[in-house]
Amino acid sequence: MRKVRVLLVEDSAVVRELLAHIVASDPRLEVAAAVSSAEEALRVLPRLQPDVISMDIRLPGMNGLEATQRIMAEQPTPIVVIAGSVHSDDLNIAMNALKSGALSVLEKPHGRTHENYGAEAQRICTQLYIMSDVSVIRQRRPPLEASPSVAAVPARPPVRSGTGPLALLGVVASTGGPNALVQLLQGLGPDFGLPIAVVQHISPSFHHGFVDWLGGVISQTVCVAEHGQVPQPGSVYVAPPDHHLEFGREQFRLIEAPPVKLQRPSGTRLFSSMAVTLGPRAVGVLLTGMGDDGADGLVALRKAGGYTIAEDASTCVVYGMPAAAVERGGVIESLPLTAIAPRLLALCAREEGVR
């Protein structure tokens, strides 16, 4: 079996050696090269053509964000960001690297004597191995603060199977989700008529920084959902780490139940609760992601009369979760990412016109 070739970009000699040891210890992986700067990585990239890159954030000279942007524009390669801290500056760089095309973000491992070293090493190797198989595309993006262009509303008008005013939009995403979420929420704008509940799979240590970053790049109010909170239009409520987010009796519930398909929070738990509580008054959107979280919940929501949308394969970073929902019959429409916001706006406009 051919091994996955990893390019390590890390300025600390100690951490670089540790990462090289971790990668070399996994029979699925091999170190293509280990370099100390982004500039050196860019020089060797055309020759080495690695399968995946482990990218540090705080580098001498060009940082990890700039390096990610250059690589995705010049020689697209799957990138896993490995960040050394959860301080705001590093987090902003890491989150913007995800927005620019990096696939996931992990914490740097502790030393070999640390009690969590084995789990950390396994997590890093698994991410590198899985992400190496993702087909990334050349990124030619506008500046980070610019809003994306929005596609026209699909020609077929939205038809809901139920009646009653829409009450809640649920959005679930995983790998590639931060960038997709930004594009979707920017497309909806600050006056979108529904509260928005979000489940984004991300490491708990990066969750707070992700919420702060998201609030800084979109126009809506963003907060971590709280137990008993009554959602309001124009606000985005992100599921907290290690809790399922559900909706019932016009308010959010935080549940400490076991993970579903290895995920907590689980998109299926959110969509299923919306199906039971709201039925045809709910809208569910399943974005890019690996695995099948959210698929069964979207099936339940569609059966209850809710309106269900999955991101189309043409724009997904990883067409896993949406594909599972389509295969199981849970999707009314599969749409490219830039067409989802116009569809949601059309749904709300239609409801306003009917009232």
Kindly report the oligomeric state of this protein: single chain
Rg: 20 Å
- Report how far apart the termini are: 61 Å
Query: Based on CA inertia axes, which overall geometry fits?
Result: elongated
In the CATH hierarchy, the architecture of the largest domain is: 3-Layer(aba) Sandwich
Can you summarize this structure?
The chain has 355 residues and is an alpha/beta fold. 37% of the residues lie in helices and 19% in strands.
Descriptive account of the structure:
- With about 350 residues, this protein is of the alpha/beta class.
- The protein folds into two domains: about 5-130, Response regulator (Rossmann fold); about 170-355, 3-Layer(aba) Sandwich (Rossmann fold).
- Helix content is about 35%, strand content about 20%.
- The protein has eleven helices and 14 strands.
- It has helices spanning about 15-25, 40-50, 65-75, 90-100, 115-130, 175-190, 205-215, 265-275, 295-305, 320-325, 335-355, and strands at about 5-10, 30-35, 50-55, 80-85, 105, 170-175, 195-200, 220-225, 235-240, 245-250, 250-255, 280-285, 305-310, 335.
- The strands form three sheets. A seven-stranded parallel β-sheet has the order 8-9-7-6-12-13-14, with helices on both faces. A five-stranded parallel β-sheet has the order 2-1-3-4-5, sandwiched between helices.
- Strand 13 (about 305-310), helix 10 (about 320-325) and strand 14 form a beta-alpha-beta unit.
- The chain is elongated and about 60 Å long.
- Residues about 140-150 have low confidence and may be disordered.
